[in-house]
């Protein structure tokens, strides 16, 4: 992976950066942003870390996560440059309509977009965390323990902790270096996967009980009523769509979560070569081959129907 020289000179030249990542952030968004801001701190830069949504509880073990703000401070003036991480549009970061002196995009999603004066988009990279690792090396900054924990968590979450198709020798070599720099795989896995509240577990049980199988597609959902009943929030559904995919004959898992009246967030997960990013972008969303998403304004039944129609069309295209 080659870091664009233009990006390196931009980082060296500018003094103040707003680092923003996508709404509903997970460990790759948060961890890669934190590691990048730590590296820029080393270069004597001023960084502000922004996410429209709060850092999810599951990421509260990440060093320096409290540096994230959900309000763009007044101190952000036109002399701040923007770095968008793990996403490639202002809309996805929830900051549409704002303008910046200069902008750089660092991302690994395959859905192409126009935004950014500098675009460094590497769909082959397993995580944005991998790209930040290369970037920090290229800047000749030593990886600290805090950076290592953030980057390891970022890479772990996006590779299903080194199980998905994006896991390569490169991913594992990087993980090994991060362990040498102080990241503990057991501790990070424990924090990511074994710290659920009972409420969250109750919600998963409810979600799994909604399952419906249509050929090789499984649909599950969570309503606002279920959130209320269990005392949980949308962030608690992270990883829910991965569960139905564990069945041998399931190729695609579709998970709907209700954010507002007739407003649903849809998560898609697939196995092997079936590309759900294509379907998600058909609904104005995006993502990766095996993990993608979009939002839809309609009732659940119509949303399911149009999704299934989209899936069937895509499957037919794949067969042709
Ligand atoms: P999740 O289903 O966990 O929310 O997201 C799965 C993948 O698809 C992530 O890489 C995420 O960034 C991407 N993704 C999810 N929802 C959207 C969306 O509405 N728009 C775009 N562009 N990407 C999305
Ligand atoms: Mn990512």
Features:
37% helix; 19% strand; 320 residues; 6-stranded mixed β-sheet; alpha/beta; binds manganese (II) ion; 10 helices; binds guanosine-5'-monophosphate
Would you write up a description of this structure?
The protein has 320 residues and is an alpha/beta fold. The chain has a six-stranded parallel beta sheet with strand order 3-2-1-4-5-6. It has a six-stranded mixed beta sheet with strand order 7-8-9-10-12-11, sandwiched between helices. α2 links the parallel β1 and β2. α3 packs antiparallel against α4. The mean pLDDT is 96. It binds guanosine-5'-monophosphate (5GP) and manganese (II) ion. Guanosine-5'-monophosphate binds next to β11 and β12.
Strand fraction: 15-25%
Radius of gyration from CA coordinates: 19 Å
Q: Outline, from the CA principal axes?
A: globular
Bound molecules: guanosine-5'-monophosphate, manganese (II) ion
Point out poorly predicted stretches.
Answer: none
Q: What is the CA-CA span between the terminal residues?
A: 34 Å
One letter per element, helices H and strands E, the order comes to HEHEEEEEHHHHHEEHEEHEEH
Major β-sheet strand ordering: 3-2-1-4-5-6
Structural class: alpha/beta
Task: Count every helix, treating DSSP H or I runs of 4 or more residues as helices.
Answer: 10
- The residue-averaged pLDDT reads 96
Q: What level of helicity do the residues show?
A: 25-40%
Instruction: Give the number of DSSP strands.
Output: 12
Largest sheet: 6 strands, parallel
